[in-house]
Amino acid sequence: MKKIILFTLMLLASSYLYAQHVQFGLRAGPSFTTLGGDDAKSDDLKIRIGFHAGGYASFTISETLSFDAGLQYANKGAKAPNGSSTSVLRNGYLDLPLLLKIQTGEMFYLLAGAQPSFMISSAVILGENGNKVTVNGSEVRELWKDADLAGV
Fold it and tell me: Which residues are registered as beta bridge partners of 85?
């Protein structure tokens, strides 16, 4: 009995996978980020405008439901103005958005899912009176977590 059920499930899954429609696309745009957490003083940190760019594959599950898996580079961070000086925290991440897409109309859909992110670069830019100093490398990367998980 178990073999018949297993065979039936495999047959249904293989026919489902065969009928699956896949679309590929590109994503790019601005990102508005800041830092948070117990150690962050939210009054001191301002939003930093960065960008994200990458691609995705969309796997159709039904007429109104699909699964999107992506890979994108994202520039995140924060600004910390302090009188005549400014500190800019700039982190580069590789994001892997894993999203369910629900089509609710002809041109409108909802996305929800998880997005693991992995840090690939980090820098702190210190500026005062037009002079800037950039600090990057392992010393700066050690200030942050190497990976993060976000809900989308």
Answer: 82, 128
